[in-house]
Every structure is written in structure tokens, then in C-alpha cells.
User: Which sequence fits this backbone?
């Protein structure tokens, strides 16, 4: 099949590359000239595991091309994917300017070229209920000549960043929203090779498909948030959220996934999609109360490590001047360079505003972080610099924060980390370490929703870990605040 993908970001580039890998002829379109030039030169613009091999093969075998010219891609296409941004507008609703702008342009081109034949236009972006109808109206507004046939389909995307290629190549399900049998048949043919393992292609109307995407993300965000609140309570009552997770995750009605407590969800999807669904409900006169709570709790959760850090390191005015804080992890999750809504950034802003010297390391997301803070500068008297390795970031630090659970952070040489730190204080926002192991290794340790056993204390003079026989219990107050003696 001949496919055009409009918008060559995380979804468009992964989707286009994977469609090409499956033998389709794909043209990816973007208005960002630098991005298109980079891709035309055979270089990827995002980091996504497994993408490079398919990308290089697609280009080498001439099944994958890139252009800034929409007409070039549209003319031969049987199926046209709109993989455009839908960022939050000021009121939280999804901003449809990119989607409707491109629909309008497609309408112009189809009206001027009725001989281009039947097209299936696919909303791949996450868009509110009613958008398929609005895209149809935007295309038809150009008074299409008779003989121009098109259908608009809602085909939401469920891929996760960091596992995007795997998710796209073997989706657990494909949702197709259309009332046109002809479009349904085309979409079915296109996706059949991706669901050979027997996973379903689920056909429904456009509105239900649009709602399915928001419902999925909102439920997942709610599940995480629920566990974060359970963790916050575990901290207060002395229970261990990891045990609770295993205890409930084995109930098949609950399932083991998405039950990991931490410093909140980030990314380009959950925050904006929960907000947009909340907004849609409000526009319909319905107050979707759970969603409001999810958003509020998540904002607080991103800062859950701030009070314990301040309690241990700040002066009486809450200042962190002269303190060095290492941050491991900048991406909103592992295996991606995406830093949109990353909890690490919230913490960095907070520490820098209080005068700290922050030293950060991430295996993939330093450049994207640099770009973000260049666009939206940090405020305050502190500083941020980037280290070349996790060890270099920790060296000389008064505290280490783990903000993203990259595999390489899970099994470092703990002795080396401890020796190099000024004070061996670890705040683990993703529960990557075993509390007992950290204590044994001589760290003062705090994680999310898990009690720290026999905690380590520091020698007031030298800041060195005390000998095991001198260890006295490290104080964690009722509110979960950790204090050095
Ligand atoms: N990122 C994800 O994991 C993910 C997963 C599922 C669904 N989605 C949804 O998919 C959509 C796209 O998300 P993304 O993360 O790929 O966005 P992105 O910001 O990474 O990419 C969007 C691309 O569209 C391009 N663009 C903007 N206007 C254009 C125009 N007029 N013509 C051509 N190109 C244009 C931009 O230059 C950019 O390259 C959003 O609605 C998002 O909610 C994202
Ligand atoms: O148990 C968990 C699972 C995830 N997270 C956090 O949740 C966020 C989102 O993670 P994930 O869902 O894995 O990544 P995304 O790439 O944002 O993917 C989500 O958003 C995409 C865009 O809509 C959808 O396509 C995916 O199905 C949906 O999982 C990240 O900050 C994670 O750290 C947790 O805190 N605990």
C-alpha cells in the first residue's frame, strides 16, 4: 500500500518506519525543514530502541522517504495518517490547530486534484470525540468536485515511548473507528500483518475510537496515581508498597502492570490527555472528579522528595546554597530521550531555585534537557551542569536523587558511589534499590512507600558512614520525612 504520514515525531516516525518495514511504500511529511533534512540524510531525530535498523533498511530499499511537500506525499497515497501534535490549549483542551490546519490543506489539494482518487484519512493523533467529523468537515469545506472520495478514520495509537517499535509491530490491539465499510476494509488489510499473533483489530464508530484512547490513558494514569497514594500511606503506617503491589497484582482483575509507585507520571501523553478528557467532560456539563484528583495528586507526587531533601540539607530558610545534589535520570521514563513533563525537571527547578548546585546525568536525555531549559530557563541562584556518567554526577554530592529507572542505575558499584559522595544520602524516586542493601552499603536511604530498615547515620564530623555497631536508627517522621541525626 502507499502511505503518507503527516507529522514525523515519535508517532509518525515510528509508525512510518514500521509500515515501511512491513513492505508498504511510505512518505513521511513534516514542516520542520531541519528534521526532514536530517532524516533524508539517514540520521534519526529521536532515540527509540530498535528503530534504527528498520529506518536504515526502509531508506536503503527505497520504501521510506521524507519530504516537506504535502502534495508529493498525498498524490500517490491510499492511506494518509495525521500524526500531528495535539498539545494542551490554555484551558486544558486538546489544541486541534495542527490537525485541522493539515485537514484544510488536504481539502485544498484534493479539490484541486480530483483525479488523485480515493483516500483514507486517518486521525492517528490523540484527539477529542468529534474530531473525525471536524476533519471531514474541514476537507469538505473546499467544495470537493464530484469524483473525489475520501473517508476519515479514527485509529488511535497506543505505543509507549521506549518500547514504541515493539508496540507498533505487535500491538495488543488495533482500534479502528469508522462507519465506512470501504475504509474499514483498507485499514484491515493494512494492519493484518501486524496482528498475526491473533491480537484483535477492533472495529467501532469514530466517536468510540476517539474515546477509547482517552479512556485507556486516563485509566492507566489513575492506576499509577492510586498506587502513589497507597505508597504515601505506606510511608506513614510502615507498610511496604512493593509487598502491596505483589499482593494485589496477582489478582487477575487488577493485573501486575502499572502498579509501580514513584515520583509521578510524566511524558507527552498522560498529563495532557487526562487534562483534555477532564475538559471534554466539563464542556458537556459533567464534572469528572476522579480525573481532577489524578492531576492534583500527580503534581504533588512529583515533589514528594522535596520535603525530605530540605529537611536533611536545607538551612533554616529552606535554602540549599552550597549543597550539591546529583540527579540520575532526566527522561520522563527509561529508554527515551523525551523529557516532556519529566518529574526530574520539576525537582531540578525546585533545587536550583533554592540555590543548589545540581549535577545531572542521563544516558539519552541530556541534549533534550538542555534544549528545554534553553527555551524555559531555570530560575534562582543555583546552577545545573551535566555529568558524563552516573558516577561523575554522584561524585562530591551531598545527596543523590534517582528520578528515572534506567537499567544502568539499578546495579552500580555502590561502594564507589558512596566513597565519592560528600554525604551518602540517596533519595530513590523510582524504588530501584533494595532498602536493606542500601543500608548495608552505608547509605542513608529513602524511597517511595517502602520503610528503610536499620538506617545508616552519618558521622557529624566527617560525614562518613558510621560503623555498623554505631548505627542508630535513622529517623523517619510520621509524615515520611527523613532526618539525619
Ligand atoms: N508520543 C507518544 O508516545 C504518543 C503515543 C500515542 C499517541 N500520541 C499522540 O500522537 C500525536 C503526535 O504525538 P508525537 O509525540 O508524535 O508528537 P511530536 O511533537 O513528537 O511530533 C509531531 C510532529 O508534527 C510536525 N508538524 C507540526 N505541524 C505540522 C504540519 N502542519 N505539517 C507536517 N508536520 C507538522 C512537528 O514538526 C513534529 O515533528 C499527539 O496527538 C499525541 O498525543 C503520542
Ligand atoms: O507503574 C508505572 C508505570 C508508569 N509510570 C510512569 O508513567 C509515565 C508514562 O509511562 P508509559 O505509559 O510507560 O509511557 P508513555 O510513552 O507515556 O505511554 C503512555 O502514553 C502513550 C501516549 O498516549 C500511550 O500510547 C501509551 O499506551 C501509554 O502507556 C512515566 O512517567 C512512567 O514513569 C509509573 O510511575 N508507574
Assistant:
Amino acid at each position: 500500500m502507499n502511505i503518507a504520514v503527516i507529522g514525523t515525531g515519535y508517532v509518525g516516525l515510528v509508525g512510518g518506519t514500521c509500515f515501511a518495514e512491513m513492505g508498504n511504500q511510505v512518505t513521511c511529511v513534516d514542516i520542520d525543514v531541519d528534521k526532514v533534512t536530517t532524516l533524508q540524510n539517514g540520521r534519526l531525530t529521536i532515540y527509540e530502541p530498535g528503530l534504527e535498523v528498520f529506518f536504515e533498511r526502509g531508506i536503503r530499499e527505497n520504501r521510506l522517504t521524507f519530504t516537506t511537500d504535502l502534495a508529493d506525499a498525498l498524490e500517490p497515497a491510499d492511506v494518509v495518517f495525521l500524526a500531528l501534535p495535539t498539545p494542551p490549549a490554555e484551558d486544558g483542551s486538546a489544541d486541534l490547530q495542527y490537525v485541522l490546519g493539515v485537514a484544510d490543506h488536504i481539502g485544498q489539494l484534493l479539490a484541486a486534484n480530483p483525479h488523485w482518487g480515493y483516500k483514507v484519512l486517518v486521525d492517528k493523533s490523540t484527539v477529542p470525540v468529534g474530531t473525525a467529523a471536524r476533519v471531514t468537515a474541514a476537507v469538505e469545506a473546499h467544495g470537493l468536485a464530484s469524483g473525489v472520495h475520501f473517508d476519515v478514520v479514527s485509529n488511535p495509537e497506543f505505543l509507549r515511548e521506549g518500547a514504541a517499535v515493539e508496540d507498533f509491530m505487535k500491538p495488543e490491539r488495533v482500534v479502528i473507528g469508522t462507519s465506512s465499510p470501504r475504509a474499514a476494509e483498507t485499514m484491515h488489510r493494512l494492519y493484518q500483518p501486524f496482528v498475526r499473533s491473533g491480537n484483535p483489530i477492533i472495529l467501532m464508530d469514530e466517536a468510540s475510537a476517539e474515546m477509547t484512547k482517552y479512556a485507556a490513558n486516563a485509566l492507566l494514569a489513575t492506576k499509577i496515581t492510586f498506587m502513589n497514594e497507597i505508597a504515601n500511606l505506606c510511608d506513614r503506617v510502615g507498610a511496604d508498597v512493593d509487598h502491596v503491589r505483589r499482593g494485589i497484582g496477582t489478582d487477575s482483575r487488577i493485573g501486575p502492570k502499572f502498579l509501580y509507585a514513584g515520583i509521578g507520571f510524566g511524558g507527552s501523553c498522560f498529563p495532557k490527555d487526562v487534562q483534555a478528557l477532564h475538559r471534554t467532560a466539563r464542556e458537556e456539563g459533567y464534572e469528572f472528579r476522579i480525573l481532577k484528583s489524578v492531576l492534583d495528586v500527580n503534581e504533588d507526587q512529583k515533589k514528594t522528595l522535596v520535603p525530605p531533601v530540605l529537611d536533611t540539607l536545607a538551612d533554616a530558610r529552606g535554602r540549599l546554597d552550597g549543597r550539591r545534589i546529583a540527579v540520575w535520570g532526566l527522561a520522563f521514563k527509561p529508554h527515551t530521550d523525551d523529557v516532556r513533563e519529566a518529574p526530574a525537571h520539576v525537582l531540578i527547578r525546585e533545587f536550583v531555585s533554592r540555590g543548589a548546585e545540581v549535577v545531572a546525568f542521563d544516558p539519552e536525555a541530556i541534549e533534550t534537557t538542555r534544549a528545554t531549559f534553553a527555551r524555559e530557563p531555570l530560575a534562582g541562584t543555583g546552577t545545573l551542569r551535566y555529568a558524563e556518567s552516573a558516577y561523575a554526577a554522584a561524585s562530591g554530592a551531598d545527596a543523590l536523587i534517582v528520578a528515572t529507572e534506567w537499567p544502568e542505575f539499578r546495579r552500580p558499584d555502590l561502594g564507589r558511589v558512596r566513597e565519592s559522595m560528600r554525604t551518602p544520602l540517596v533519595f530513590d524516586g523510582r524504588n530501584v534499590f533494595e532498602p536493606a542493601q542500601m543500608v548495608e552499603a552505608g547509605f542513608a536511604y529513602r524511597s517511595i512507600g517502602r520503610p528503610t530498615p536499620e538506617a545508616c547515620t552519618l558521622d557529624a564530623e566527617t560525614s562518613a558512614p558510621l560503623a555498623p555497631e554505631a548505627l542508630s536508627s535513622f529517623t523517619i517522621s510520621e509524615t515520611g520525612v527523613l532526618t539525619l541525626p
About this structure: The chain has three domains: 2-204, 214-299, 303-483. The CA atoms of residues 314 and 320 lie 5 Å apart. The longest helix spans residues 206-237.
